[in-house]
Amino acid sequence: MLQPDSYDYQQLHFDRRLFLSKAKNIQEQRQYLAFSLHNLPLEPFWEGSWVGEFRSDDDESHRPIPDISMWLPGTMILSPKAYKVLAELISTCGELLPVNCQGERFYIFNCMTIVNADEAGSRRTMEGGRIVSIDKLNFSPTSRAIFKTTYDNTWGLYCQEAVKDAIERSHLSGMQVSEELSRSFDQ
After folding, report:
1. Distance (Å, whole) CA 39 – CA 144
2. How far apart are CA 42 and CA 97, in angstroms?
3. Rounded Cα distance, 93 and 55, in Å
4. SS3 helix, strand, coil % of the chain, rounded to 5?
5. 14-47: string of b/e by CB count within 10 Å (b at 16+)?
6. I want to staple 10 with a disulfide (CB 3.0 to 4.6 A). Which of 54, 57, 131, 177 is the partner?
7. How far is CA 22 from CA 30, 42, 77, 81, in A?
8. pTM of the complete model
9. How many angstroms separate the CA atoms of 132 and 95, rounded?
10. 11-33, pLDDT tens digit by residue?
11. CA 3 to chain centre
């Protein structure tokens, strides 16, 4: 599972209302508020290259900008360096949408590939119809380089060894690949 190291890096601030305002009606706008869960493309609303910025949520402005990080569930933000390393590997699994940050062209990766969890080998805890934790998560073998799953409401991004190796070999900062797939949603 891809996990952000958001405490040591600045985070992308991008107002998604910019593209939500392009929705045809309020119903479509509501769907796009949870675009990852509904597996919706953002490209129809994307106009050229939007503008975002990296900043810390606290007074730690000295923190560096990551090469790769999470933006929203089911998405990542890629620096120009990360784009060069990962674009070919992940482009068939989703959209790569340009966003200008700090004078450079970054890319938002919107994962559009869903892989079902192996239900027999997975376990989650539900309370009030809501997932509170993924206790165990397994997948059947897949050739997809990067993907999400409805088992966790498309909250996480999961990847193959090729993506993990590319991140580590290129020393891309901001994300770690963990073999531990359990997680809590009590945030």
Report:
1. 16
2. 8
3. 28
4. 25, 30, 45
5. bebeebeeebeeeeeeeebeebbeebbebeebbe
6. 54
7. 12, 11, 22, 30
8. 0.88
9. 29
10. 888 777 777 888 888 899 889 88
11. 9
∠ CA 51-98-83, nearest 5°, is 125
User: Taking CA 156 as the corner, what is the angle to CA 154 and CA 159, rounded to the nearest 5 degrees?
Assistant: 115
Q: Which two tokens stand for residue 17?
A: 């209302």
**Best CA proximity match to 163, nearest among 84, 85, 78, 74:** 85
Task: Output the CA–CA distances (angstroms, integers) from residue 164 to 3, 42, 88, 184, in the order listed.
Answer: 11, 25, 14, 23
Judge contact between 5 and 63, C-beta under 8 A: no
User: Amino acid identity, residue 8?
Assistant: D
Instruction: Name residue, tokens 């938002």.
Output: 108
d(CA 39, CA 28): 13
The pLDDT of residue 56 is: 79
Neighbours of 88 (CB within 10 A): 11
